[in-house]
């Protein structure tokens, strides 16, 4: 059961990351607005989109899932921080959907990393 949940979570998070790419990489007005508020437009939007693509691919494969989850934790921590400090929880009338999705991705990535901790050379010995 735990392995199935682990696989399902990796796939769901990868799909969410891949789904948001079309907004970031095509300069969708909502994405441009968000990254302008965060003072990261356009280079931050493009760089984060590329990193999310890389991390989504890494999440899919069992041997690299720990790298994908660790990278996703880093990116999504920044997103949560920006929501709380600069851009707000509700953006363009979304009722906080982006923020709550970021929290889900953070929790899911943490769960994946925790399950993969023995594969991480600098964590496996200590945890």
Describe this structure in words.
This protein has 127 residues and is mainly alpha-helical. The protein has one domain (2-119). The protein is built from five helices and no strands. It is elongated and about 40 Å long. 28% of the residues are buried.
Q: Low-confidence spans: pLDDT under 50, at least 5 residues? A: none
- Mean pLDDT, to the nearest integer, reads 92
End-to-end Cα distance: 22 Å
Strand content: under 5%
Radius of gyration: 15 Å
Please report the total strand number as a whole number.
0
The number of helical elements comes to: 5
| Total discrete domains | 1
* Fraction of helical residues: over 70%
Which structural class fits the helix and strand makeup?
mainly alpha
- Main sheet characteristics: none
Tell me, briefly, the overall form: elongated
Along the chain, the helix and strand elements come as: HHHHH
């Amino acid at each position: 059961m735990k392995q199935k949940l682990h696989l399902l979570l990796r796939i769901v998070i990868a799909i969410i990351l891949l789904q948001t790419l079309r907004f970031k990489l095509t300069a969708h007005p909502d994405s441009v607005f968000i990254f302008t508020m965060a003072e990261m437009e356009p280079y931050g939007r493009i760089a984060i989109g590329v990193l999310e693509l890389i991390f989504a691919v890494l999440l899919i494969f069992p041997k690299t899932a720990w790298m994908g989850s660790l990278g996703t934790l880093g990116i999504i921590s920044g997103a949560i921080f920006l929501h709380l400090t600069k851009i707000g929880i509700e953006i363009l009338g979304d009722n906080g959907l982006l923020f709550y999705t970021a929290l889900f991705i953070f929790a899911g990535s943490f769960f994946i990393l925790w399950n993969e901790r023995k594969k991480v050379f600098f964590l496996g010995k200590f945890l």
